[in-house]
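Dear H.,

Thanks for agreeing to be a second pair of eyes. The structure we're designing against is below in token form, covering all 276 positions.
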């Protein structure tokens, strides 16, 4: 199993697990909270069939990557991504982020530029800025996120059950688009993540990406569901036009947060059309 080392904590290396399959133009997939790179399985299959090289990795703290107690902020996440792209010497890359992974895409391009990147995809995006402040009246109260962090700290498995129910709109799609087995597999992945990461990453959702977005100088596809209960479009994607220069915005009717699973056919069609 391939790993790259992105840092150290005390005596131990911090390693990221990744998978690298196929040939052709590279697409790097960056997963959402609280899952791992395997959550892209339906997109990976479609991309490989279409002749792309697909690289998916597990963020620090999640999946098969190391679980350090440090580095849970978007500057570090973007630096980890930069190490991956550099070590694999990837060029003309499409960066595709889902949910929390859209923050890596945005911060990476805002910090490191587009020298290695030719396109970007933001699925169920976090940007531009979720927190309500004096200059961001369209944001959400900090108390909401404090509540999430308190719940994840008090009983992480129970928190993950509730989070994933909203993630999949399980009351609507459970038993049809989302099997009990799929839900259970996601819960197992979520609860096997670092307890530190599970709490610390919630605070990263309040990162202000407004300074990064104008620096995105490649074509960008924004894709999300209109029934997203985790990151509703009114707080996220609907605010991105005008902040990104070259942007296409597709909203999937009935789509929950987890469109990469529940509405994979529509996501894959839009993704492949954008890439080709």
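And this is the sequence the design step returned. I haven't edited it by hand at all.
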């Amino acid at each position: 199993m391939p790993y790259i080392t992105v840092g150290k904590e005390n005596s131990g290396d911090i390693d990221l697990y990744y998978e690298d399959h196929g040939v052709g133009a590279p697409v790097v997939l960056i997963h959402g909270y609280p899952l791992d790179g395997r959550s892209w399985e339906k997109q990976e299959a479609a991309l490989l069939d279409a002749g792309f090289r697909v690289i998916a990795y597990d963020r620090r703290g999640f999946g098969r990557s190391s679980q350090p107690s440090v580095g849970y902020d978007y500057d570090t996440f973007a630096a980890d991504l930069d190490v991956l792209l550099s070590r694999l010497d990837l060029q003309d890359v499409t960066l595709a982020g889902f949910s929390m992974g859209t923050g890596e895409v945005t911060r990476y391009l805002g910090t490191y530029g587009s020298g290695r990147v030719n396109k970007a995809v933001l699925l169920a995006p976090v940007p531009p800025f979720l927190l309500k402040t004096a200059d961001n009246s369209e944001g959400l109260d900090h108390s909401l996120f404090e509540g999430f962090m308190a719940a994840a700290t008090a009983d992480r498995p129970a928190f993950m059950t509730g989070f994933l129910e909203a993630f999949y709109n399980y009351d609507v799609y459970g038993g049809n688009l989302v099997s009990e087995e799929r839900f259970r597999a996601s819960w197992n992945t979520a609860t096997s993540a670092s307890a530190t990461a599970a709490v610390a990453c919630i605070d990263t959702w309040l990162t202000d990406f407004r300074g990064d977005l104008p620096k995105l100088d490649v074509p960008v596809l924004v894709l999300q569901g209109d029934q997203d209960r985790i990151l509703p479009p009114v707080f996220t994607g609907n605010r991105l036009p005008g902040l990104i220069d070259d942007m296409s915005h597709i909203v999937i009717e009935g789509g929950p947060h987890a469109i990469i699973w529940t509405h994979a056919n529509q996501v894959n069609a839009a993704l492949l059309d954008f890439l080709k």
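Two observations from my side: The CA atoms of residues 116 and 162 lie 38 Å apart. The chain has ten helices and eight strands.

Warmly,
E.
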